[in-house]
Amino acid sequence: MTALLLTEIDHVAIAVRDIDAAIAWYGGTFGAQVAHRELVERDGVEEALLEVAESYVQLVSPTREDSPVARFLSARGEGLHHVGFRVADCAAALQAVKRAGGRVIDEVPRPGSRGTTIAFVHPASSFGTLVELVQVPAGREM
Ligand code: CO
Predict the structure, then answer these.
(1) Ligand 1 center–CA 86 separation, angstroms
(2) What is the Å distance from ligand 1's center to 2 Cα?
(3) Rg of the Cα trace of the chain?
């Protein structure tokens, strides 16, 4: 049997055009609080993490026209963008995807927001949903 490599749902990412409006909606409607907010230059996004129990809703909004999230918004509109699964070892989980013949977006793990190490799996391999493998730094599991 294959060992379970996914330890938690780290975040559910939702692409939005107006991140402040989305934060206000989650806060005003559900009382959800922003735990972390960050500009991720490399990916051309601003993100806000809203705490939900042990996981987050991650609101992502493009900071430039050519960012993947900007292209996603113009092609598909606002909505579910990806699911981030927490893993103990991002490189090992990525290797498992490749070993199973899966297509990856990141050939090797790379830095994500809040000090994480991440890699994306292509939605063509994961049944239409973009999957992110998220390794949280030791001692910072939450
Ligand atoms: Co993410």
Answers:
(1) 10
(2) 25
(3) 15
Cα(3) to centroid of ligand 1, in Å?
A: 23
> Is the entire prediction scored with pTM above 0.85?
yes
Superfamily per CATH, domain 6-135: 2,3-Dihydroxybiphenyl 1,2-Dioxygenase, domain 1 (3.10.180.10)
Structural domain spans, the chain = 6-135
Overall average pLDDT of the 98-123 stretch: 96
CA 142–ligand 1 middle distance (angstroms) = 15
> In sequence order, what are the beta bridge partners of 57?
12, 50
Residue 139 in this model has a pLDDT that exceeds 80: no
Alpha helices in the chain (DSSP H): 19-30, 68-76, 90-99
| pLDDT of 109 over the 70 cut | yes
